[in-house]
Structure formats: C-alpha cells, structure tokens
Amino acid sequence: MGSEPRTDLARHYDSGGWLARFAGRMLVVCPRCGGRALVIPRPGLSEPRYFSELLFQPRRLACGGCGAVADWKPEMQGAGLVGAVLGGSEDPFFQRPLWLQTRSAGHILWAYNEEHVDELSAYVGARLRERGGARPTMSMFARLPAWMKVSDNRGEVLAGLETLRALAERMAPADRSDAAHGRGDRPRVRRSMYFRGGPYES
Question: Cβ neighbours of residue 189 under 8 Å, at least 6 residues apart?
Fold first, then answer.
C-alpha cells in the first residue's frame, strides 16, 4: 500500500539543530555507474563528540553497485583543518550530485539521507511551528528557502519528500531521478577551521 504525504502533523518545535547533524551519511550519484553511492566517514575513526566535527572527518565514497571507491580528507591550512561547507544539491566532500533530488513547487527539493527527509517532513507538515534553541537563526529550519515554508506549497512539498523517501530505497542507475544532477549551487561562504590536534589529520 502506497503511503500518502502526511498533513496531520499539527505542531513542530525547532530545537535549533544544524544541517551538520545529517552529514554523517550522504546518498550521492556514483561517479562511475550513475547509481546510488554512499559518502560516509572513513572506517576506523572515533565517533565525533559534536556534529560540527563531521565537516572535518576524512570521507569515503563507496558504491555497492559497481564497487567504485574514493577517499577525501580535509585541506590543511597552517595548523588547522579546513572544513567542508554544507548546502546545495551536491555533497560537500566529492561534489557529487545528491541522490535524493526531485522537482517540487517549481524548485529542486533535496536531502542528504532518510533521516533528513523525515525531519523535513515533520517541519513542512506542521500547522504550528515553534522556534527554540540557543541560536535559532542558525538552525536548519530557519535557513530553509521560503518556498518550502509557505502553506500554499505544503501538499506539493510533502509529496516531493515522499518521492525522496522512495528514492532512498533504490540504487540502480536506472532509478536515478532526472533532477539528480550537479548545478554548481554549493554555498560560497567562509569555511570553518578545526585546530584541535587529533584523529582527523592523517
């Protein structure tokens, strides 16, 4: 039985979480076969204490379909590591198009993984949205584009999120969304620095 977009979620409380909390696992388009690949922290690393550390962890791109593998590590700048910049329809490490992309309300709707889709669905479907957290203007929800927040687009955006949820279950090149292409829309902002010595420098 197919699931219908939820519109009964009456209330959503924004605790101020950043987009970085979904950066641990990203579904991307494989550079070799065009199927679904994963971008994850390099195996063997310790668990980060903070979500922000995910922007500095060495990464591995791996495709279960064709076996493609690639590695990424942060750039060194003086005594610090330069972190990846989140945002846009490409992953911030390998610059591969995100696998979870679809057209919605005249725009491109994207997400990093299934958990990201779930959080967006809870927010978009809510009739009442409350903002909290120590720095609410820095939260992921506060930075969503206006077209995702307006009530007139609620049904269409929720339907798009259901499409992304279905795409997350697929991995063959033929399953790739026609929207899953690079657009060069990654943010051009100052990158963060990580100065604490330790596990991410090798």
Answer: 85
Helix 114-125 vs helix 154-167: crossing angle, to nearest 10 = 160
Instruction: Kindly report whether the global pTM for this prediction surpasses the value 0.70.
Output: yes
How far is residue 11's CA from residue 138's CA, in Å, rounded to a whole number?
20
Residues β-bridged to residue 40: 60
Is the Cβ–Cβ distance between 195 and 79 less than 8 Å? yes
How many residues in total does the chain contain? 202
Q: Rounded to an integer, what distance in angstroms lies between the CA atom of residue 97 and that of residue 89?
A: 6
Q: What is the pLDDT of residues 73-103, one digit of tens each?
A: 998 887 788 889 999 999 999 999 999 999 9
What are the sequence ranges of the domains in the chain?
Answer: 11-179
